[in-house]
Amino acid sequence: RKEVEQDPGPFNVPEGATVAFNCTYSNSASQSFFWYRQDCRKEPKLLMSVYSSGNEDGRFTAQLNRASQYISLLIRDSKLSDSATYLCVVTPTSGSARQLTFGSGTQLTVLP
Amino acid sequence: NAGVTQTPKFQVLKTGQSMTLQCAQDMNHNSMYWYRQDPGMGLRLIYYSASEGTTDKGEVPNGYNVSRLNKREFSLRLESAAPSQTSVYFCASSATGSRTEAFFGQGTRLTVV
Fold this sequence. Notes:
The structure holds 2 protein chains of 2 kinds.
Chain A: E1 4-6, E2 11-14, E3 19-25, E4 32-38, E5 45-50, E6 55-57, E7 60-65, E8 70-75, E9 84-91, E10 101-102, E11 106-111
Parallel strand pairs in A: 2-11
Antiparallel strand pairs in A: 1-3, 3-8, 4-5, 4-9, 6-7, 7-8, 9-10, 9-11
Chain B: E1 4-7, E2 10-13, E3 19-25, E4 31-38, E5 42-49, E6 56-57, E7 64-68, E8 74-78, E9 87-94, E10 102-104, E11 108-112
Parallel strand pairs in B: 2-11
Antiparallel strand pairs in B: 1-3, 3-8, 4-5, 4-9, 5-6, 7-8, 9-10, 9-11
């Protein structure tokens, strides 16, 4: 079983739609959680960190469920510019150099 | 605002050739990483370095060596390239602490023929 698993998609949604992605992780000792965004043939960039209490940044909401070992990302009012691959990232241990473990990514295409 | 700089951006090698991928960051980060990204596989950690002078293996270290030359630079060497090493390679860096963001270079697209 992969340490971090995501539905690869693709998710094709119309502009204005709400879309949600889930990501499951296998290591219950995981410390920190993130969502990164990767545009086609570009480097990943941090979208948002995921906190235990959940957090929101504009149209984006991230949730963490430690009991079930999954994190989620909700995008409301989708824009064409949201089209990208969304990577779930987990850090198995704390410490000075973290082994960031990436999911394979979920591809989102927002259609006009 | 250079951030993380990788060179080269593209490279074609013949099987058995060697090369070094260079990475430098100007953010005074302690931690640096090398990943490879293959279709459907996501990013897999090759090696990482917690600080100058230390390196550790990641998930897929075979066929690679690294050098943390100083705090700024972390290079990845392929001693004898194989077609299985055809991939996109990303260097990243981060400050100390579990919640800090990792910043990535633009990637090196390597093809081994």
